[in-house]
Amino acid sequence: MNEIWNREYETMSREELRELQYKRLQMSLRWAYDNVPFYRERWERERVKPQDVKSLDDLWKIPFTTKSDFRSAYPYGLFAVPLERVVRIHSSTGTTSRPVVVGYTRGDLNTWAELCARVVTAGGARPQDVAQVAFGYGLQTGAFGMHAGLERIGASVIPASTGNTRRQLTIMRDYKSTVLVCTPSYAMYIAEAAGDLGFDLDDLSLRIGLFGAEAWTNKVREELEKRLDISASDNYGLSELMGPGMSGECIMKDGLHINEDHFLVEVVDPATGEGVPEGKEGELVFTSLTNEALPVARFRTGDLSSVSYRPCACGRTFARHAKVYARTDDMIVVRGTNVFPSQVEEVLMEIEGVEPHFQVILDRKGALDEMVVQIEVEPSFFPDAMRRLVEFERHVEDRLQEELGVRARVKLVEPKTVPRHTGKARRVIDRR
Ligand SMILES: [Zn+2]
User: Fold this and answer.
1) How far is the CA of 309 from the centre of ligand 1 (A)?
2) Poorest-confidence range of 104-108, 283-287, 381-385?
3) How far apart are CA 111 and CA 117, in angstroms?
4) Distance from the CA of 318 to the center of ligand 1, in angstroms?
5) How far apart are CA 200 and CA 217, in angstroms?
6) Which element (helix H / strand E) includes 61?
7) 17-52: string of b/e by CB count within 10 Å (b at 16+)?
8) What does the alpha-carbon distance between residue 260 and residue 249 come to, in Å, rounded to a whole number?
9) CA of 272 to the centre of ligand 1 (A)
10) d(Cα 50, Cα 262) in Å, to the nearest integer?
11) What is the DSSP string of 329-345?
């Protein structure tokens, strides 16, 4: 079960790795400085030059890059190469603001496929697998990255794209898909919808789930593994730096190995930007080491996690970051208290009878925030006594209050009325 795609790099000694990282960092900073006016101007303003970074420990001297820098540079302002060298362009959908636009040279696409090959191998995919990719094939990076990685290891890739769950299930059953690639919330939806659409989950050949592109908890993992009879692993990546392939879980499922020969990781205090010690939670910051079209220095991800350099039983020497449960972007403030949707999920999944679908609705009643959590229960869970329903709602409210430190109103809704998503789930509706 434990296989490593690129032993030479994935198991190199920490010492060799740090040497390689420093060499690549110098080249990458120089590349950005020489070819991207944005970096040159900003670093000059801060009176720092690439040669001032004399070791990996000097990286803090370089200013952060943020999502808003990408937006200001829209569309091509951060590219370090002319468009004639760019062979692929992806972007966010940008429904609320200017999209983030990213470009890849031929070399970048090659690296991307290599890193995704490592991640899918770590997650358990093999050449004999039939892999159904149910991410959207469009502007976003998820589908194309995982597709390239699976193809590289020699799996048979089915570009199913998202939506049309009946067709997904037909393909899954008839083509005997063994690997499912999508968001965990879509996997959950597929598992749930199968019965209604006339499919028997026992007729499927699935054995592996490679899930990513949204935060999900270990409770959801257990549920997906049970319902779909698979081993489910998490993988992570950001479009700004590359897309999927930046990190992924191995069979130990105890953190995601970062492809550190291509990305340098830091963990900083989100408020001060100062580095935090190993194992402490903070915001993940990544620096690309080999990107050609789009070198990125110290990108603030908004994702909260911690990093461990402890050796892993799988044999990989790359550091691991903890599963990302929370994005600073996802955080909601309810009556002055910080709340993450993942905390709500964690509580709900512990309560027997609650389905893994929920929605948080925020409203303002006078001067006060009101938070309503809509949940569904398994249809068989209740006899019909209304009194018990009310008791159950109070029970969930109490559990949420213990965990979140703020009172929410819980509302049981009819089964299958909480919206389902084929891509990323929308957990929070903020009407304030
Ligand atoms: Zn490992």
Assistant:
1) 11
2) 381-385
3) 10
4) 8
5) 26
6) none
7) beeebbebbeebbebbbebbebbeebbeeeebebee
8) 14
9) 31
10) 18
11) TT-EEETTEEE-HHHHH
Distance CA 105, CA 116 (A): 16
Please report which residue ranges of 184-260 form alpha helices under DSSP H: 184-196, 218-228
- Convert the pLDDT of each residue in 25-62 to its tens digit: 999 999 999 999 999 999 999 999 999 999 999 999 99
Q: Compute, in angstroms, the gap from residue 248 CA to the centroid of ligand 1.
A: 9
Comparing CA positions, the residue from 237, 241, 206, 226 lying closest to residue 67 is 241
Contact 117, 152 (CB under 8 A): yes
How far is residue 412's CA from residue 396's CA, in Å, rounded to a whole number?
A: 10
Distance, CA 121 to ligand 1 centroid (Å)? 12
Distance 150 CA to ligand 1 centre (A): 19
2 C-alpha to ligand 1 centroid (Å):
9
Residue 13 Cα to ligand 1 midpoint, Å, equals: 14
Name which of 72, 423, 36, 401 is nearest 213 in CA terms.
423
Strand order in the sheet with 256-258: 156-158, 130-133, 179-182, 208-212, 231-238, 243-249, 256-258, 320-321, 307-308
Spacing, Cα 323 to ligand 1 middle (Å): 13
How close is the Cα of 126 to the center of ligand 1, in Å?
A: 17
Query: CB count, 10 Å around CB of 243?
Result: 25
Query: How many Å lie between the centroid of ligand 1 and the Cα of residue 281?
Result: 20
Q: Tell me the two tokens of residue 315.
A: 């044999």
| Cβ contact 423:165 at 8 Å | no
Could you give the CA distance from residue 399 to residue 407 in angstroms, rounded to a whole number? Answer: 10
Tokens representing residue 135 in the block: 């991410």
Distance (Å) from CA 49 to ligand 1 centroid: 36
Q: Which domains does the chain have, with CATH numbers?
A: 1-329 (3.40.50.12780), 333-430 (3.30.300.30)
**91-95, 301-305, 424-428: which range is least confident on average?**
91-95
CA 312 to ligand 1 centroid distance, Å: 5
* CA–CA separation, 109 and 170 (whole Å): 31
Give 313 Cα–ligand 1 centroid separation in angstroms: 6
- pTM equals 0.88
